[in-house]
Amino acid sequence: MTRRGRVAGGIGTMVMLMVLTSWPPVRLLSFDPDKASKGGSVLDHLPAHIRPLAIDLPGGGVPMRADWSPGGDRLVFLDAPIGDVWEYDLDSGVARNLTEAFLPGGVLRAHHLTNGDLVLCAPLQRNRQDPEGDRFAGRLWVLSAPLGSRAPVGLDAPCWEGIAVSKQPGSTRIAWNEASIDFTAVPQVFGEALFGESRIFTGRIVYDHAGRPALVDRRVVVDKTDVGVITPAVEAQDFRRIDDGDPNVDDELIFSAYFHNGGQVMGVDLDTGAITDYAPASHFYEEAEGIDPAGRYVLVERDLAIVLFPGELDIWRLALDGSGSFERLTTFNHYAGYGATNPVVSPDGNSIAFQLEKADSEHGQGHGLLLFDLAR
User: Fold this and answer.
1) Of the residues 25, 232, 242, 338, which has the maximum number of CB atoms within 10 A of its CB?
2) Which DSSP string do the residues of 215-231 spell out, in sequence order?
3) Neighbours of 251 (CB within 10 A)
4) Measured torsion, CA atoms of residues 319, 113, 257, 160, in degrees rounded to the nearest 10
5) What is the DSSP string of 35-83?
6) What is the DSSP string of 109-175?
7) CA angle 343, 347, 352 (to 5 degrees)
8) How far apart (Å, rounded) are the C-alpha atoms in residues 122 and 81?
9) How many other CB atoms are found less than 10 A from the CB of residue 145?
């Protein structure tokens, strides 16, 4: 079976889990009558506040999964779902490869610490017999600044899907996921999702006198069973500061609970462990992504339907005030075969970087980066 077939099969099985674990049991209706109602390319019909980034990469790579630098003047991104990490200077338009000399097997995720280092999730080596499974076989690394000048250092911890990185000044706190679930392994993914492990950890990165990083203070902050008895998986998304205490301390971790009531955006209090469901009335597919630096909202990938596949997604803004209020920011999936995913908010809160989604691509595949100007 092809990579796309293996991954799609795994996600199809997970959607069946969603049907079994959600209430109402099945929604086969779209609540967005304009979805896929238009022909042509969405890139030919962009509003004034959205513009594509013209980034040409050698070898056929396509920019995806962006992350802002602490100063907001650069982006790092991948050139494939398991690819090299690049840095793009927004002023000069120059992109440079940071990892091809060190991690030839590719990288799954890359996120900035406030000190300018990058935290990576990358497999130790590629599995030629099961390359699709490498998406769920990552390890944590630190690529120290100046970026690209030296090899990354492993942190002796597995990682599954995304990493959350604190944006508070001087903080090196991270959150990551550890899971026994391989969503590409069909048909055993059904049993793995029901009975396998899925947990979110937090920890801090510290440096010795030579500047070598290590991971300390590891602890579990969420287990999938904390959300629901048959919740398949949880994934860390972003730290949040709440304006009621120390301004430089993260109070909450926003995470996604996959296929729990469709897909839920949730938060866990990092002191008490209390969990908040920020969209309890929703049963659509929803996945938390980037958070507002001020903690007022989180950006969410959303599809107003539950079918055998979530379909092409769009970006919504979910208020984190307990109201469950969503505001739609993009209408990319009104154009047949297109969507908008993986949004991240700039450090000043004025811009969003996100990726173009196209139908019939590998799950998580991006097709170029765009900027959304929130000030316009």
Assistant:
1) 232
2) EEEEEEEEEHHHH-TT-
3) 17
4) 160
5) TT-B-S-GGGG--TTEEE-----GGG---EEEEE-TTSSEEEEESSTTB
6) EEEE-TTS-EEEEE-SS--SS-GGGGGG-EEEEEEPSSTTSS--EEEEEEE-S-EEE--STT--EEE
7) 25
8) 11
9) 15
Which residue is listed with tokens 């092809």?
A: 2
- Please, which contacts does 267-276 make with residues 24 or more away whose CB atoms are closer than 8 Å? 267/240, 267/320, 268/200, 268/221, 268/222, 268/226, 270/202, 270/221, 273/221, 273/226, 275/222, 275/226, 275/227, 276/252, 276/322
Q: CA–CA distance from 350 to each of 111, 354, 372 (Å)?
A: 19, 13, 9
Locate 86 and state its tokens.
């690049």
Half-sphere exposure of 253 (CA within 13 A, CB side): 30
d(CA 351, CA 66): 13
Sheet holding 314-319, edge to edge: 285-291, 297-303, 314-319, 326-328
What are the structure tokens assigned to 23, written together? 């209430």
Give CA angle at 16 (366, 226), nearest 5°: 85
